[in-house]
Amino acid sequence: MRQVKLGLWGADVSEVCFGSLAISPLQGRVTEAEGISVLRYALEQGVNWIDTAEIYDNYGQIAEAIKGHQDARIVSKSYSVTAEEMRLSIEKARTALKRDTLDFFLLHEQESALTLKGHLGAWEELLRAKEKGIVRWIGISTHAVAGVRAGALLPGLDVIHPILNYQGLGIIDGTLGEMLDAISFAADLGIGIYAMKVFGGGHLASDPEKAVAFVRGVSGVQSMALGMSSQEEVDYNLLLLADKEVPEELQKKVKHRQRKLYIADWCQGCGLCLEACPQGALSIEENISVVDAKACVLCGYCGRVCPHFCLKIV
Question: All domains of the chain, ordered by start, with CATH?
């Protein structure tokens, strides 16, 4: 597994970061035990860092999976707004992950300088945690061009986790070209960049070679988080990144797995899912939620807020 340096002053990590959303309760693709098994397998193959978030609700799963792999680095993220909320989020992660020091902690889904200003208290608490050695590296995740540009100018920021794929799917405020320019701007400042939604939430899964090659070819992007929920997906992705031929049988098992957002017919049309969707992919028609499949990137955030458990990735 190729090792990379995350920015000028960041960690040495594997080119692939294990995106644990795919094994979390938020998506429900696999059982907790199955997720632990897949994550352990990835660690054994040389993947040495894991992306999670408070919203994924899988700290316990990760803590179990990394037993025997204490050198694995973990990224977590929080929507915290105030300093107190961030303190609680950090302590929750430290306790549940059983780590005195967290490797990475990010503000989750920042959109612009305005949203960062609204989260200033939380950011200042992250800076204090970094000064105390409780967190090693801090940053933001974002689906927005403006988020990348504003984040790059934050004092003390080490890493940005932006949405990036060859069609620009999921970018909420601009074009792919604008996102590439913003990433270049951040990278020139020495900031570490690892990409998300490389396969566009599954929309680009029919040509994974192209999807991976595109992100690898973007100057300034050192690594990418790939969501994996089976050993076959781990093998497939690692072969791609090793520039090795993927056996036909493995291609059949992985390449053509299509997923979608399922909305149950008992949906009450309350609209909470619309507020939770960063892509604006949901709407209410005839008192029921409907999804624009082309806009949906299968993040599963809508399912978390549904009081009637109507939405899930299948």
Answer: 3-254 (3.20.20.100), 261-313 (3.30.70.20)
